[in-house]
Amino acid sequence: MQNKQSYLSEITKTFRTNYDRFFEIVRNTHQIKQMPTFQLNYFIQQTLENNFPITIEFNDQDNEQTGYLTKLSADRYLLTSDDNHFTRIVKLSEIKAIRKY
Questions:
Q1: Which residues pair with 55 in a beta bridge?
Q2: CATH class of the structural domain 37-100
Q3: Strand partners, 64
Q4: Which strands, in side-by-side order, build the sheet including 95-100?
Q5: Where are the domains of the chain?
Q6: How many CA atoms within 13 Å lie on the side-chain side of 15?
Q7: pLDDT for residue 21
Q8: Alpha-carbon gap, residue 85 to 81, rounded angstroms
Q9: Can you tell me the distance from the alpha carbon of 87 to that of 89, in angstroms, rounded to the nearest whole number?
Q10: What pLDDT score does 89 carry?
Q11: pTM of the entire structure?
């Protein structure tokens, strides 16, 4: 009886370890690296000139936000959603990555 319990606990421990390791790998592959500042500036410039929608991933959040940018000052922008229900003031230092929507 003791051998069966230790065998079962060993299997449970191995399963739990492999399960955690598997999902940790999945989470890490989704993360996008920080874009360089010159690249962020270039993408923002293109967005403002052509007025196309973009998706922004922020440094402090996991979820992305999509909308149109309007320049407020040298490093501050207003992000407005398509339906105008959502607006956010965005500083250049808060942006992790930008892509065309």
A1: 66, 99
A2: mainly beta
A3: 57
A4: 87-91, 76-80, 64-71, 54-58, 95-100
A5: 1-31, 37-100
A6: 6
A7: 79
A8: 6
A9: 7
A10: 94
A11: 0.66
DSSP-H helix ranges across the chain = 2-30, 37-50
User: Token pair for residue 77?
Assistant: 């922008």
Across the chain, how many H-helices and E-strands are there? Answer: 2, 5
For the beta carbon of residue 90, count every other beta carbon within 10 angstroms: 20
Token representation of residue 59:
């440094």
Question: What amino acid occupies position 52?
Answer: F
Q: What is the pLDDT along the chain (101 residues), one digit of tens a residue?
A: 555 667 788 888 888 888 877 877 554 445 668 899 999 999 999 999 999 999 999 998 878 999 999 999 999 999 999 888 889 999 999 999 999 98
Radius of gyration in angstroms for the set of CA atoms belonging to the chain, rounded to a whole number: 22
